[in-house]
Structure formats: C-alpha cells, structure tokens
C-alpha cells in the first residue's frame, strides 16, 4: 500500500509560533498544534523525497545528551539537524561534568551559551524538567522513563499517512504501560483517535496521565478504553501497536515480566481480531518471539520501518518549529 499524499504544496505554517519552546511532554501542544507539526513533518518528508533542500537551521547547533543507549534517536536527530542546515553534537552523559557531580543548573546555563537547543535521552523525567527550568534554550525530551514524545509524533505521522486520517482511527496498544504508552495515548486522544490499551494487572499506565488523557479525549471527541483483555482492545482495530516487555532500566525484572506478559503477545491469532487492513506498529528495538511473533512483525501488515523513518521527519519538524 502506498502512503496517502498528505500535502501537494507548502503549508502555510508559522514556524515562529513555537520558537524557544520546550518539548518535554507531547501534551505541551494541543491537538491543533500537533496537527500543524504533522503537516510540517509531512511537507519536510515530501521535500526530501524530491531532493529539495529545507534548511531553516543553518548555523544552528543541537547538543544531544545521551544517558541511555540509542540507535534511532541519535541517528535521526543528528542526521535531521544536518539536513536542516545545522549540526548535531553528541554528548555522553558519563563524559560530561554532570557525571562528576556538576549541578544540572550549571550545565543548563553553560550549554545555553554554547548551543541553540538540547535534546536529552535519560532516565528521570524530573531531571529533564530541571534542565529545562534552568536553560534559556529549547530542551527536547528524546526519552525519559515517563515519556517519549518524539516517538508519539512519528507514530501519528505513520498512521495519518497510511489511513489518510486520525480522527476516529482505532488504535490498540498491547503491553506495558510504559513511557511509549504514556505519550502514544496522550497524542492519540488529543488528535481524536479511538485509543484502546491492554496491559497486564500491575503494569497499567500512570494514573495521573490516564486522568489527563480522559480529559483530552472528552474535549477532542476521542475515546480511551483501558482493559486487561487483549481481544477487547484489538477488536476491529485499524492499527495494533506493541513495545518490548522489559524497557531499559528494568532489566532486573525481566524474568518476572516474561511471565506476567505471556498472554500479551501480538501474534497471528490476536491480529485476526483487527481490521483486515490493520497496521502493525512497534517503536523498536523488537524481541521477536516475545512481545510479537516474527510472522506479524515481518509480515505484510507491518509498517515498522515507515514508522522508524518517520522519527527523522517528525523530529525535523520539531527542530524547525522550536529552534
């Protein structure tokens, strides 16, 4: 299936509207603003496909702090910044003075004098909030234990491309109520999707985030179903999404999680309950034979590599809008 053509011409989007703003959580943007970012991402993607340069960030530098291992986040941000005319600078958290006890506030103020924005991929969300509080430049959350907003924007772009709409699309998430789930759900209900989440008992989403999501759904016309029944979540779904059962930082729980999630595998039997034209999505990396079977993730309804590519385009839109 070929992606739906989203835009035929340059969207009239005010790039200055969000200049200097942070992106720590996906719900720092309302539904209309998220749709504008998606339009910009789709346009940037089309320009790249046709070899047309889009370089609004010439002379700009993005500092990229990594406390967690990364493939997609590092490559997509570094390449994205280069394609926008700027430069991405890799900064290992272990090698910064932060690793030797320098206060976050001092690091934030120093980096604000050197670079034009910071993307950080780390553990504690409170750590990122403190960095943003003391910085005078945009701070972008590349992932924390609580949120993964850049992934959620790429997910929405992928669904929009292949379904031609977002409002009313039935999206099922199966697995851990983790950072990916938190941001995915918030983005979905802000944009009016019919969101279903199936988690094992004891691995539900954060209750405060669920409450916010319900409020957003009420305002947007979206829906939110929380269940422990995977079939209930997947029934008639336009897209089925899963993630690893053991996220980074939780490796000590791996054996316990394998047992708890045994009935939450996305397999051929489960996706038979979805719409015949469903999309399979996964933020990657994936563990074939655990959260998903090889037959599903490598099958004809899998769009995981479109989804991975869209990290690049979505993040270029974020950078162009904020920096």
Automatic annotation (TrEMBL):
UniProt keyword terms in alphabetical order: Cytoplasm, Transferase
Domain Aspartate/ornithine carbamoyltransferase Asp/Orn-binding: 167-321
EC class of the enzyme, as a word: transferase
Top-level division of the source organism's lineage: Bacteria
Name this polypeptide is given: Ornithine carbamoyltransferase
Catalytic activity: carbamoyl phosphate + L-ornithine = L-citrulline + phosphate + H(+)
PROSITE patterns, per the entry: CARBAMOYLTRANSFERASE
HAMAP family: OTCase
Residues that, per the record, bind L-ornithine: 179, 243, 247-248
EC number(s) from the headed UniProt entry: 2.1.3.3
Family: Belongs to the aspartate/ornithine carbamoyltransferase superfamily. OTCase family.
UniProt-annotated location(s): Cytoplasm
PANTHER family cross-referenced by the UniProt entry: ORNITHINE CARBAMOYLTRANSFERASE, MITOCHONDRIAL, ORNITHINE TRANSCARBAMYLASE, MITOCHONDRIAL
Biological source species: Brevibacillus panacihumi
GO MF entry, a single one: ornithine carbamoyltransferase activity
Domain Aspartate/ornithine carbamoyltransferase carbamoyl-P binding: 21-161
GO cellular component, as recorded: cytoplasm
SUPFAM superfamilies: Aspartate/ornithine carbamoyltransferase
